[in-house]
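In response to the reviewer comment on reproducibility (Comment 2.3), we provide here a single inverse folding case reported in full, input and output, so that an independent group could reproduce the run without further information from us. The structure tokens appear first.
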């Protein structure tokens, strides 16, 4: 039998278009063809299991071969095969009508790059790399004649009878001269590793099975041990540190989704890695760009998601609006929050031990997802400078009595750097106040969120004001200095400091407090932080010098001494006291430091 025909399509040649627009992704031809082979294999298995096919199944491996001399790539399977009629029906008509529609739409549409994916051109992706494609196939059905189909990428095809003993299909690609890279074995191996690593049927290349047909996400959690999860993580990300914990996703309704998400060990903000989650559809790798499929903050997790319900061949904007994608988003978020709740409740010690690794993730989630916030507010932890952890509720109970100001506002104090802000942390501790450590990049946003969410609560950095003003109580502080003395003292300091960005004020601090306290107002610092990270339209503020408040402790003996000192000595002592304040905050450097050291030596010398 020989038959020649024209493929029913109005456009002369669609392949140049396919080729052009799938350009960046040419390698997916292999994924499409191997998946087809796997599908055909699974179909014969099913037919056999229900007794529709009574013959031997034989070795069901899918085999990929590259022959550089013959310039061919062959994908062979022992699946259900096709009769000549079926080729005409499934390959010629269906695919070509899809392609014809594609061309029509392509002519109209603006977003051409996004169009191609909307059509299941599966088999025809072969023409991205081949200038002639052949199918040699024998159906599982008895008494059918094997067929040999050839097409050169035009709309003409030929079908002749073939000789083929075994059931199944060989797809032979005669590789085009501009696609010779695909004749390199290493290239093919890389592509197979990327897309076919977990296909459900064994795939052989160069005598080796390249895939794991039963990845653990397809199994029931009850069948799996901790080791299995860790081993699989290692398989996905060789050389990575072991994950902290994981979630096995498994849902049939209202959508179908399986997968395993791992919480990686995150050492610091800079190490955050997105795009580590791999997306599969029935064990076929699709992409590791899951941006529109999982919520942004969950992209910090690692692992796999497998769902035939995610419409993979559609454009991004469509994906975002898709209702099953939204449901999937909600489901995953809930699962992750539930898992964290479970660990928190069952094993608080483990939860605390891992907090450094997961806090960025939890905070990011709370900031970006209201539903996640609602669950996480019960397990998010605050750590104080002593290394103790508290939930929001626990911390409120701890601080409320002592840290509520005269207006009933609970003031939580925090430090971003225990070493640099040590003097202030100590001053707070001396008052019996507790100080939180909020020192990661995300914490400035987290602080803002807490203030919005928690009632009557303010957060202040411990060095943003003098201790009395950080949390203003109703008690009146007496000053031992008269108003004129205060004025004099202020002038002396202003002259000694001689810097417009230092606002000098004389305040009645406790005699035990430092003689001079330099603070950077909370408001000012937040504005500057905001402008640095590009938010709030405050760009100009980033370039402004820091403006500090300098509190001169009216009740400190040094300041009383200054007023009594000889004229030429007044400024010297004031400058020395100011420099000591700078020094305690790591702010003294350059010529000011040199002058300070010299002055100090002179002072000791005089004693
Ligand atoms: N190796 C094969 N063995 C048997 N039938 C095959 C084989 N390859 C393709 N077919 C048949 O040709 C049809 C068209 O394949 P094609 O890859 O174009 O689309 P598809 O697999 O149906 O969808 P998709 O766009 O998701 O790949 C298949 O549905 C199948 O019936």
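Designed residues, in position order:
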């Amino acid at each position: 039998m020989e038959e020649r025909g024209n493929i029913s399509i109005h456009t002369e040649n669609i392949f140049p278009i396919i080729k052009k627009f799938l350009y960046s992704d040419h390698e997916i031809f292999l994924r499409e063809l191997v998946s087809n082979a796997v599908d055909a294999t699974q179909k014969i298995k099913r037919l056999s299991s229900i007794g529709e096919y009574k013959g031997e199944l034989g070795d069901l491996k899918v085999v990929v071969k590259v022959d550089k001399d013959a310039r061919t790539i062959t994908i062979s399977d022992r699946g259900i095969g096709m009769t000549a009629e079926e080729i005409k029906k499934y390959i010629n008509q269906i695919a070509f009508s899809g392609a014809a529609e594609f061309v029509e739409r392509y002519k109209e549409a603006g977003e051409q790059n996004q169009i191609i994916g909307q059509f299941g051109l599966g088999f025809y992706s072969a023409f991205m790399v081949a200038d002639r494609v052949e199918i040699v196939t024998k159906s599982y059905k008895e008494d059918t004649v094997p067929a040999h189909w050839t097409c050169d990428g035009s709309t003409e095809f030929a079908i002749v009878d073939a000789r083929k003993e075994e059931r199944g299909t060989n797809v032979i690609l005669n590789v085009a001269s501009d696609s010779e890279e695909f004749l390199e074995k290493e290239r093919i191996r890389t592509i197979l590793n990327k897309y076919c690593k977990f296909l459900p049927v064994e795939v052989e290349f160069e005598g080796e099975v390249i895939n794991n047909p039963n990845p653990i996400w397809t199994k029931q959690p009850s069948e799996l041990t901790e080791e299995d999860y860790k081993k699989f993580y290692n398989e996905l990300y060789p050389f990575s540190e072991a994950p902290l914990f994981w979630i096995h996703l498994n849902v049939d309704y209202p959508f179908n989704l399986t997968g395993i998400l791992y919480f990686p060990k995150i050492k610091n903000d800079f190490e955050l890695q997105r795009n580590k989650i791999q997306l599969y559809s029935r064990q076929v790798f699709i992409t590791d760009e899951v941006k529109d499929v999982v919520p942004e903050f969950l992209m910090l997790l690692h692992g796999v998601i497998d769902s035939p319900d995610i419409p993979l061949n559609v454009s991004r904007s469509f994906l975002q609006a898709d209702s099953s994608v939204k449901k999937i988003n909600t489901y995953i978020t809930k699962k992750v929050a539930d898992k964290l709740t479970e660990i928190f409740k069952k094993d608080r010690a483990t939860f605390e031990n891992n907090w450094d690794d997961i806090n960025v993730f939890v905070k990011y989630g709370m900031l970006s997802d209201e539903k996640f916030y609602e669950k996480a507010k019960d397990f998010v932890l605050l750590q104080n400078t002593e290394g103790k952890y508290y939930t929001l509720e626990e911390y409120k109970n701890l601080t409320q009595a002592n840290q509520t100001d005269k207006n009933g506002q609970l003031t939580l104090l925090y430090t971003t750097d225990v070493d640099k802000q040590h003097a202030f942390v100590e001053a707070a501790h001396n008052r019996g106040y507790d100080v939180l450590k909020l020192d990661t990049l995300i914490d400035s946003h987290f602080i803002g969120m807490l203030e919005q969410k928690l009632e009557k609560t303010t957060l202040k950095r411990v060095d943003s004001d003098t201790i009395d003003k950080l949390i203003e109580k109703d008690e009146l502080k007496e000053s031992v200095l008269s108003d004129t003395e205060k004025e004099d003292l202020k002038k002396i300091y202003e002259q000694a400091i001689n810097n417009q960005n230092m606002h000098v004020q004389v305040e009645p601090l406790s005699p035990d407090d430092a003689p001079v306290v330099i603070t950077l107002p909370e408001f000012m610092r937040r504005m500057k932080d905001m402008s640095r990270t590009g938010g709030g339209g405050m760009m100009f503020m980033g370039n402004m010098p820091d403006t500090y408040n300098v509190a001169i402790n009216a009740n400190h003996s040094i300041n009383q001494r200054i007023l009594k000192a000889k004229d030429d000595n007044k400024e010297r002592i004031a400058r020395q006291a100011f420099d000591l304040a700078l020094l305690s905050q790591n702010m003294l450097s350059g010529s000011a430091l040199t002058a300070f050291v010299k002055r100090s030596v002179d002072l000791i010398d005089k004693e």
